[in-house]
Amino acid sequence: MNQTSKQQPQLLPGELRITGGASGEAALTLQVPRWNAGQRESVLRRLADHPWQLYVLLNGGPGAELDGVPLLPTAEELQAHNPQSAEAELQQPLTLLSEALEEEPLRLFGLRGMDKEELQNGVFALWAEEAQDEAAGADRAAPGGALAQELLRLERKGSAVPTGEWLAEAAAEGSLHQPGAQFHALAARPFPASPEVAVPAEDWGALLPRTPRSGEGLALIMRRTAEAAQRRAAEAAPGAQPAERPGSRG
Questions:
Q1: Distances 55 to 60, 89, 148, 174 between C-alpha atoms, Å
Q2: How far from chain centre, in Å, is Cα 239?
Q3: When comparing pLDDT for 241 and 46, which is higher?
Q4: Lowest-confidence range among 4-8, 26-30, 41-45?
Q5: Which letter, b or e, does each residue of 55-72 get, where b requires 16 or more Cβ atoms within 10 Å of its Cβ?
């Protein structure tokens, strides 16, 4: 906030108080409309699609505002909820809110009725739902698939909100690199006997115009790498015999 400004905004859920003077008493109090349930859901989904902005926002940094998220109330909104205030009185509050948005957008979310806990838990809940939907879709696409069924079972063990709380606590403690409790429920899985290699989706001919058949070369490298990984996995399996290397016979 501009240190030379004599007026300071106090942002509360649905209320803006502007203090001024040495006494710090409220010089102006304005009502600000809170977001309804539909707007809150839309904001959470926007943040779920922009994890970097969410990270910056939760850490109180600037630059986390998102296009399409109406953090700043308009002059019309303020006038509608504060009919006793003249239009000229609303210009300074809007300027102070713009400064707050640039320096700490999280305060504007609080003004609109969404605190930090609701933001992080809401977004983590959406991520958990998406993961569960993907696991369920994989289970339907490949009936009996062991990996898909296990992922789906792990997702169903707990609700989304506790998962969000655990992630938030781990981020605050700097322990996101440590495995969670569900890690111990994972079991070893055999390496597929015939690993499938996806066809490169990129247009390598455009990327490397002077290298003919670059896409075919990349596909060959990927296939050979997968085959080598399959051989190493087979050699590391319990009871497996070491593979004979070419030219090892006398």
A1: 9, 35, 29, 13
A2: 44
A3: 46
A4: 4-8
A5: ebbbeeeeebbeeebebb
